[in-house]
Design brief:
- Helix 4 packs antiparallel against helix 5.
- The protein has one domain.
- 60% of the residues lie in helices and 0% in strands.
- It is an all-alpha fold and 178 residues long.
């Protein structure tokens, strides 16, 4: 998702049951930030909890695939594809985590009006861009699509009309990785 979709999802007209229909009860970033600012208790899954779990899954998967590699004697090409998939998952988790960390600080700024919150968000965004470049590199020769729906019905994070925005490289708004 783009930063604006993370910090102001309501602007993007996501259908009302989208969040509730895609997982257990929990809070989106905007709700979490408001509760956090008001020192209210949280409900269900929270963004920091999910970020920690996703990062742990990526790290553990990389450790497991790396530990298994010396024992692979057959189907090495298939193993390499699986290993790349796991490395892609980990890069995606790390990239999105940094973006979410930045979004949490931007949402905090909404209430605090403390410029330090925005200044703390900048390094997170910079790391996010760097990690996105890593993901682009891991996927450019191995993935046909960064998403599963190549139609105009797909809106979040971006539309897929005419097959545009189909690879991780296509999804970025800059030509940095050309």
């Amino acid at each position: 998702m783009f930063m604006s979709q993370l910090v102001n999802p309501f602007k993007w007209r996501v259908y009302s049951n989208f969040y509730n229909s895609n997982g257990p009860e929990g809070e989106i970033l905007a709700e979490w930030a408001l509760k956090e600012w008001n020192q209210e208790s949280h409900t269900g899954e929270t963004p920091p909890q999910i970020v920690a779990e996703v990062l742990a899954h990526g790290r553990l998967a990389k450790e497991a695939i790396d530990a298994a590699e010396p024992f692979i004697t057959e189907n090495k090409a298939e193993f390499s594809r699986l290993k790349n998939d796991i490395y892609c998952y980990d890069a995606f988790a790390r990239f999105l985590t940094e973006k979410i960390n930045a979004a949490m600080l931007v949402l905090r700024y909404k209430y605090s009006r403390d410029i330090n919150d925005l200044e703390k968000a900048l390094p997170c965004l910079e790391r996010s861009v760097s990690l996105y470049a890593e993901l682009v590199g891991l996927t450019k020769e191995s993935y046909l699509y960064a998403n599963s729906m190549q139609t105009g019905q797909r809106r979040i994070p971006i539309e897929g009309t005419g097959g545009q925005n189909k690879t991780w490289k296509n999804c970025c708004l800059t030509t940095r990785w050309n």
